[in-house]
Amino acid sequence: MDDKRTLKKAPYGEGTIFWSESMRMYVARFPASMYGRKVSGYGKTRETAVANRAKAVERLIKSTQRLVKNPVGKILDDYYAWLDGSNRKQNTVYGKKQRLNKYLKPYMTKPIMRFTENDILDILQRARKEAKAEENSRIANQIYSEINQFLNYAMKRKYIKENPIVLIEKPSYKSKARQDNELYIDERIRLGKELLQFTANHADKYGTMYGILLIASLGLRTSEIRGLTWDCFEHLDDKDNAILNVKQQYQKNRTTGKMELVEWTKTDSGFRKIALPESWRKNLWDYRSWQYNLAIFGVIRSAKNLGNFCFVNKFGNPFSDPILAKYWHDLKNAYEQERQKTDRNYKLSDLDKNMRLYDMRHVCASLLISSGQATIDQLRPILGHMDRRMTEYYTHLTMESERKIMNNIPQLIGGIKNTLK
């Protein structure tokens, strides 16, 4: 009779079969060299142990096949198809694909279940090295968000059990423009007010920029300003009832290279309704009449878009991003020259020269919050999407405004002096 405690070569192929005294059963095992890990089967008889080992091998092979069938590249293609079918803007989807293709390229054939935290850290490190400043990398910040969204998609569809990015801190990023806006908001507000007044005083020459600044001061993005059409307004001729529907953008399609009007969807954070201030309603009504007069007298050479786009160039075409940026730059230069008529030493500061039309959106929000006229919750439906960093900054402004209000309480309620020593 065989000694059960003796390790024996399996008569049923490679591997070993032995009796385990502690488990009181036979163990049939293949070494790690065969399948990349030890594979064992257990039973009261050798035959049962071997049969169970065969089942374990079959399960391992199927598991490996599942891994091979779900490489990162395949799931990424599924994710792209899902993005294409969503209501996201085409340019947004295009950007996501470009970034993910670039940084996930080395991992395309890797099973997604084996795409780990270390892989993501390597990607972020590469992104930081490609940035101008490693500690303030927009690239790393963006690709973190893109990978996180992709892995959340995979997790919801049970390709992975958990998202490996959750334990990694998102890289911080703050653009130079945003840093300047936060540090020098008073200067931004000053120049914004001065340029609006300058265009109002010289509306015969800068009427288009006057109209644009009126809209910019309502918190619209530059692409939304370019895409504004007169049918975006409701009751523009009706006192105290005028509404602006922010529902579209005019931008370049990054796939075709052509400019096109892209509508926000109602489920998108860009779509919103803004109540027009009465004085702004009157000014915009005057601006519309002025624009039509330009067409009548031939200043605008083509009137084909006048009944449509609110802001057009002398050829009657809506503005592209570079052309509107040039108009903005020329306006600041004209303002500087006007100031030099009374103060020859006047020059725009570098901060003023770098101010973008887009920064008027920040001016609008900061004025409303710092004056105590609006809260962040009231501001959200006006501005549309605000990311975490914008929210944090406006929270700081809100606290300053609330502190000013609370500082009035001692005088209002009395009891300022006391006899405490």
TrEMBL record:
<keyword id="KW-0238">DNA-binding</keyword>
<protein>
    <recommendedName>
        <fullName>Site-specific integrase</fullName>
    </recommendedName>
</protein>
<dbReference type="InterPro" id="IPR050090">
    <property type="entry name" value="Tyrosine_recombinase_XerCD"/>
</dbReference>
<dbReference type="Pfam" id="PF00589">
    <property type="entry name" value="Phage_integrase"/>
</dbReference>
<dbReference type="InterPro" id="IPR013762">
    <property type="entry name" value="Integrase-like_cat_sf"/>
</dbReference>
<dbReference type="GO" id="GO:0015074">
    <property type="term" value="P:DNA integration"/>
</dbReference>
<dbReference type="InterPro" id="IPR011010">
    <property type="entry name" value="DNA_brk_join_enz"/>
</dbReference>
<dbReference type="InterPro" id="IPR044068">
    <property type="entry name" value="CB"/>
</dbReference>
<dbReference type="GO" id="GO:0006310">
    <property type="term" value="P:DNA recombination"/>
</dbReference>
<feature type="domain" description="Core-binding (CB)">
    <location>
        <begin position="70"/>
        <end position="155"/>
    </location>
</feature>
<comment type="similarity">
    <text>Belongs to the 'phage' integrase family.</text>
</comment>
<dbReference type="GO" id="GO:0003677">
    <property type="term" value="F:DNA binding"/>
</dbReference>
<feature type="domain" description="Tyr recombinase">
    <location>
        <begin position="178"/>
        <end position="407"/>
    </location>
</feature>
<dbReference type="InterPro" id="IPR010998">
    <property type="entry name" value="Integrase_recombinase_N"/>
</dbReference>
<dbReference type="InterPro" id="IPR002104">
    <property type="entry name" value="Integrase_catalytic"/>
</dbReference>
<keyword id="KW-0233">DNA recombination</keyword>
